Amino acid sequence: MSKDHTAHRLTILGAGVMGIGITALALGFGLPVTLVDVDETTLAAAREKVRQQLKLARIMGTLPDGAEPGELVTTVSLEEGAEATVVIEAVTELAEVKAAALAKVSALLSPGTPVVTNTSSIPVDELADSVARPEDFLGTHFMNPPYLIPMVEVISGRRTGAAAEATLKSALQELGRTPLVVNDNPGFVTSRVLHPMINDAVRVVQEGTAPPETVDALFEGCLGHRTGPLRTADLIGLDNLADSLRVLYERTGDEGCKPNELLLRKVREGDLGRKSGRGFYEYGGQLS
């Protein structure tokens, strides 16, 4: 896609795993991106990680042939991202942190600019009171890594307007993604089903029924799961998984969502999955 035909410009808040992944995807499809975080050191590291992801995405053939990369601007100033057609918040999975970031950025935007929270579990309506215009607010759940997963869960809140939903869907289609809209609820569809299942898989390992390799092999060979639940957990990030399960447990009361002690112990020990080089498996060094 040439820049002459790019309809959207994205601002992304947060240069963590998902912020970097969404940025790389957008740049790879030719969209300009303003990536915002709190300090220049984080942003300098993010630029290198985006470059690495773009290289890997090209090797894997998941970007359009011959596409000229979009322009990347990194900044600590929210004001520099105020001209975006869509703003995506991808900060840490804590409701109070997200609410603070959303309040600040939404106050700077023109009416009609969609403000999007990228979250795996936190209900959109729970965050809607923090934004200037709830009708412009909705959610996404990009899967990791975004350049490899062609579908995106879109969460329409009780106060989300049709125009905001249409604009977000247009931007996602420009990114080569297929948006599927679901109604608001803790965990939506994917996390509400997948994360308790992974929690049960962790419990099976903790109880000594089978090691991670056997659990995953059975899911792959018997159930057709592409990677198995524990490799999936490592890809999600065990800290992110634990945070998501806490959100689900606190908001639903479902005991199956209470994070398993083995999962919590790994998080305490810094074994976070692929991004730290070790989770349920070893990855030979830190990956970002």
List the helices and strands and how they pair.
Layout: E1 10-13, H1 17-28, E2 33-36, H2 40-59, E3 72-75, E4 86-89, H3 95-106, E5 115-118, H4 124-128, E6 137-141, E7 151-156, H5 162-174, E8 178-183, H6 190-206, H7 212-223, H8 229-236, H9 238-252, H10 261-268
Parallel strand pairs: 1-2, 1-4, 2-3, 4-5, 5-6, 7-8
Antiparallel strand pairs: 6-7
Helix pairs in contact: 1-2, 6-8, 6-9, 8-9
**Proportion in helices:** 40-55%
Give the total of beta strands.
8
How is the main sheet built?
8 strands, mixed
For this structure, the CATH topology of the largest domain is Rossmann fold
Strand order of the largest sheet: 3-2-1-4-5-6-7-8
CATH class of the largest domain: Alpha Beta
Shape annotation: globular
Keywords: Membrane, NAD, Oxidoreductase, Transmembrane, Transmembrane helix
Site (Important for catalytic activity): 141
Domain 3-hydroxyacyl-CoA dehydrogenase NAD binding: 10-184
Protein name: 3-hydroxyacyl-CoA dehydrogenase
3D structure, described in words:
InterPro entries: 3-OHacyl-CoA_DH (IPR022694), 3-OHacyl-CoA_DH_NAD-bd (IPR006176), 3HC_DH_C (IPR006108), 6-PGluconate_DH-like_C_sf (IPR008927), 6PGD_dom2 (IPR013328), NAD(P)-bd_dom_sf (IPR036291). The chain is α/β, with parallel strands linked by helices and 288 residues long. It folds into two domains: 3-183, Rossmann fold; 190-276, N-(1-d-carboxylethyl)-l-norvaline Dehydrogenase, domain 2 (Orthogonal Bundle). It contains ten helices and eight strands. The chain has helices spanning 17-28, 40-59, 95-106, 124-128, 162-174, 190-206, 212-223, 229-236, 238-252, 261-268; strands spanning 10-13, 33-36, 72-75, 86-89, 115-118, 137-141, 151-156, 178-183. Strand 2, helix 2 (40-59) and strand 3 form a beta-alpha-beta unit.
